[in-house]
């Protein structure tokens, strides 16, 4: 079950840039109007930009950080991939390898982070991956021979392109041979 913050975020994303009243959210999730307001404040503290207009309610604008719920909402493909986001990882590639070695991987996994403290490519070359300057990710796909295959992407683009970059990367044509 989703917590109220996740439910409210989902409702605002589903409204597709339309305002949703606090009373409507309170009624829908069976919580008080002040609880809706407090959850909106928590979402804003997490980096979500939500416009508030008296008499209209709340409207989701964008996120200032990587969030799997937002990424999944804006994806344009139904390719089965689980997206996991992090503020910081040592290396998305190392995390992907560790993740796949500790469980059976039946779906593609995308590990996305804002910064890496020990980022490196598949040949082990170190690269600088500072906070708020790119999208760093590794994607694993189920592979019948070795169990998984890991590959990585490094996008040094403006943060507002986050969702569009990930939509492109996660399109089915990227995985066909």
Quick structural summary:
By secondary structure, the chain is an alpha+beta fold.
Tell me what the structure shows.
By secondary structure, the protein is an alpha+beta fold. The protein contains six helices and six strands, in the order H-H-H-E-E-H-E-H-E-E-E-H. The protein has helices at 4-14, 22-29, 33-45, 68-74, 92-101, 162-169, and strands at 48-53, 57-63, 81-89, 108-116, 135-143, 147-155. The strands form two sheets. A four-stranded mixed β-sheet has the order 3-4-5-6, with helices on both faces. Strands 1-2 form a two-stranded antiparallel ribbon. Helix 1 (4-14) crosses helix 3 and helix 2 (22-29) crosses helix 3. The longest helix has 13 residues, at 33-45. The N and C termini lie far apart (37 Å).
Kindly state the percentage of residues in helix: 25-40%
> How many helical elements?
6
Q: Based on CA inertia axes, which overall geometry fits?
A: elongated
- Low-confidence regions: 146-177
- The topology string of helices and strands comes to HHHEEHEHEEEH
Number of strands: 6
- For the largest sheet, list the strands in their spatial order: 3-4-5-6
Radius of gyration: 18 Å
Q: Distance between termini?
A: 37 Å
* Strand-pairing-aware structural class: alpha+beta
Mean pLDDT across all amino acids? 79
Strand content: 25-35%
Largest sheet: 4 strands, mixed
């Amino acid at each position: 079950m989703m917590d109220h913050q996740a439910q409210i975020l989902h409702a605002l994303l589903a409204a597709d840039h339309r305002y949703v009243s606090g009373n409507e959210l309170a009624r829908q999730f069976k919580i008080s109007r002040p609880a809706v307001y407090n959850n909106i404040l928590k979402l804003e503290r997490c980096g979500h930009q939500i416009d508030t207009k008296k008499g209209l309610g709340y409207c989701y604008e964008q996120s200032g950080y990587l969030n799997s719920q937002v990424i999944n909402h804006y994806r344009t493909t139904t390719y089965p991939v689980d997206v996991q986001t992090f503020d910081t990882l040592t290396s998305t590639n190392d995390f992907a390898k560790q993740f796949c070695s500790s469980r059976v991987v039946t779906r593609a996994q995308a590990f996305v982070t804002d910064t890496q403290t020990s980022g490196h490519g598949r040949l082990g070359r170190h690269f600088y991956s500072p906070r708020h300057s790119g999208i760093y990710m590794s994607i694993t796909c189920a592979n019948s021979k070795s169990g998984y295959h890991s590959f990585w992407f490094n996008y040094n683009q403006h943060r507002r392109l986050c969702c569009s970059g990930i939509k492109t990367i996660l399109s089915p044509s990227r995985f066909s041979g």
